[in-house]
Amino acid sequence: MFRLNLKIALRNLWKYKGYTFINIAGLAIGLAACLLIFIFLRYQTSFDKGYQNEDRIYRVVSSWTYPEGEFYSKGVPRPLAAAVRNDFHQMEKVAAIQEASGIIKVKATGSKPEIKETSRIYYTEPQFFDIIKVNWLDGEPHQALSAPNTVVLSRKLADKYFGQWKNAVGKSINFDNKTDFKVTGVIEDFPDNSSFPVEVVVSYLTYKDESLTSWESVTSSSECYVLLKKGVDAASLEVPMQKFIAKYYDKTNVGKEHHIFQPLTEIHYNEVYSNFAYKIMPKGQIIGLIVIGVFLLLTACINFINLATAQAISRSKEVGIRKVMGSLRKQLIWQFLSETTLITTIALLIACVLTELALPGMRNLFSGEINFSLFGHPVIFIFMIALILIVSFLAGFYPALIISGFSPALAIKNKISAANVGALGLRKALVVIQFAITAVLIIGTLVVVNQMQFMRNQSLGFDTNAIALVDVPSDSLSQLKFGLLKDKISKIAGVKSVSYCSAAPSSGNNNTSSFKYNSTKDENFQLNVKAADEDYTKTFSLKLIAGRTLSKSDTIKEFVVNETLLKKLNITNPNDILGKYIRTQGHQAPVVGVVKDFNNFSLHDKIEPTAIFSVIWAYNTIAIKLDPREMLPAMKAIEKEWNNTLPEYVYKADFMDNQISSFYETERVMGVLFKLFAGVVIFISFIGLFGLISFIATQRTKEIAIRKVLGASTIELIKMLNSSFLWMVLIANLIAWPVAYIFASKWLDGFAYRIPLSIWPFVLAMCISILITLITVSLRSYRAAHTNPIDALKYE
Description:
By secondary structure, the chain is of the alpha+beta class. It is built from 24 helices and 23 strands.
C-alpha cells in the first residue's frame, strides 16, 4: 500500500508541476527560516545547562529602592560573600568573584617569543569550583587557589602561553608588571554557551582593595554565587535576607538595599541585572523569534491549503473513479496525506541546503557558534521530524478531508464546484490571515527601522564623531607619565583635543553614588559620577550653560553638573548652584559649572543627574578628538607615542561611534530579522497568490471567454479578477492594525526616547499589500484576459 500511495503521489506531483513547484518553493523557504530560528534558539536556550546541581546554584544580586525609583546591579558589596557564608545555614557553598583587567606577560622560552596582552582575570574563592563543576586537567581543585598569587588557566590559554597545557603547572605569568602568579592548575575551557567566560582564575586571597570591608561600595565586577543545600527553596530565604540586611546596612540610608537570589538558569536572559554582561539574550527577543517562526510556518501552510483545495475540483473525477472501484474514505485521506508528506519532505531537504548556506550570515549576525549538526544536536533532527508531521497535518488534513468526501456520482459527471465543496470561503479566510500576517511584519519592520534611524540621528548631547578611546593603565607608576603622554599626543597632526576620564559621556561603565547637597542628609536619589580632567567638556563638545569647566587637578576639588541634577534639586536658574557644595565619594567640593544634558546611558534610559570631577586614580581611558581627514595617520602616530611612553603596556583603542552602536545590538539584530523574514513572508504570499489566481483563472476560462465575446475589455476582466482579492487585503489590514499596534507599542516602551507611533507605517503596510496583490493578480489576469475566446468555446 505504501509503494502504491508513493507511486500515485509522484505521478500527481509530476502531473501538476507548476503547483508542485509553488508548494515546494513556499514550504522550503518557510521551513528554512524556521530551521534557522530553531537552531539559534536551541543555542540560546542551552546556556548554563548541564552543570551538576544547576537547580541549586544561584547568584546574589543587588537592588536599591528610592523615592525616585529603583536601581539594580549584578554586583554585591565585597564583604557580602563572607557574611552570607556565616549567617545563612541554608548555604552549602558560597564563593566571591572579583573581575579585573590588566596586562599579562609570559616570558619567552626557547623559540617561543614573549607574550604580552590585555586580559580579564577573575579573583575567585576556591569554593567557586565546588559550585560550578568543571573538568580539571591538572592540579588539585581544593588546593590550587588556597594560597595568594596562584592562578588557574583554561586549556586554551595554557596551550597559548606554554605550548601545551601539560607544561603549564609550576610556571609563572606576570600581571600588570607588578605581580607574578604561579600556575597551580589547568581547567577545561568553559563552553561558548556559558555565562562564565573565565580563562584566568586567580586566588581571591591575592585581591587587595580598600573596599573589601565596605558595605557602601557596590560594583558590577564583584559577584557572589551560592549553592543551596538540598531541599532548600530560594523563596524561603526572603525572611532571613531581611534580617541580614538589617544587621549589616545602615537603616538611615535613603536608598533601601535588598538582595535577591537569581537562579543560574535566568542569568543569560535577565536584562535588569545584566549591566552589559556577557552575551545577554532577553526573553522578549526569544519570544519575538518564536512568534516570527510561527508566522512563517502558518504562511507556508496557508499557501499549501489554498492551492490544494483549489486543485480539489481538478481531481474530483479521480476520486469518483477510485470510490466506485472500492476505495474507502480512510484510504483516500491517507493517500492525500502521503502526497502532502512527500512534498513536505522534499521541501525540508531543500530547506536543509538553504539553512546550511545561510548559517555563516546567521553566525555573523548573532555573534554565536551556531551549528547545524544533526548528530551533535539530535534535538534538531527531532525538530525536523516534528516539522514534517505538523506541516503535513496542518497543510494536508483539511484538503484530504474535502477531496475524500466527494460524491462519486457528482465527481464522475464533473458536477463538483468550489461552491458545493465549501472550499471557497476557507480559501478567502486563509488569504486574509496570510495577508494579515504579512501586514503585521511589514508594520513591525517599518517601526523598528524608523526607531533605529531615530537613534542614529538623535543628538546625545555631545559629539561622538571621530573620537578614539584608548585604555590606559591604572597603576600609580603609569599615572606619573599621564601628563607626558597627553602632551605628546596633543602635538600630533590631526589631534584636536585630549582628555583623561573614567568613561565617555554615554557608556556602559557608569557609577552611581549617594550624595549630600548643602546639607548633612543624603538626597533621595542617586548621583551619576564621572571622573574626568579639565579638557573633558572640550573633547566631547559638552555645552557649558553656566560657570566654567574644571580646573587642572589630580584630586576632587570641584564639580561640574548637568541640568537634570538641577531639576531634581528644584533649581531653576543654573547660576544658583554655582558655589554650592556637594559631598560624594568621601569628598566635599563646590559646583563650578553646569553643562547641558547628555545621555549617560543608551536611549533606552532616561538622563540621570550627573556630576563630573577630577581624580587621577579613577582614569582608565584617554579620549582623543581627531580630524576625520587625518584620522589614519594620526592613529598610527598615537600608537607609536603610546608604545614609546608606556612600553610595558598593551595599546588598545576603539571609537566612540562603535561603543554607541553596541548599545543597540539587540535592536540591530531584530531590525535585520524583521526585514529578512518580512521579505520571506511577502515572497511566500506572492508565489502562493500567483498560484491561486492561476488556478482561478483556469477555472473561469469559459466565463472570461463569454465576457470577451459580449464586449468586456481586458481592463474590465483584470478588474473583475482583482476585486475580490483587494477586498480580502483590505480586511486583512483592518485585522492586522490593532495586533501590530499592540506589539509595536510594547516594543517602543523599552525606550525612554522613541519615535511617536504614527499612522504612516500602517498606511504604508496596506499600500505595500495592495501593490503586491495588484502586481501578482494582474500579471496572471492579463494573460487569462488575452486568451482567444474561440479556444475556450469551440467545444461547447
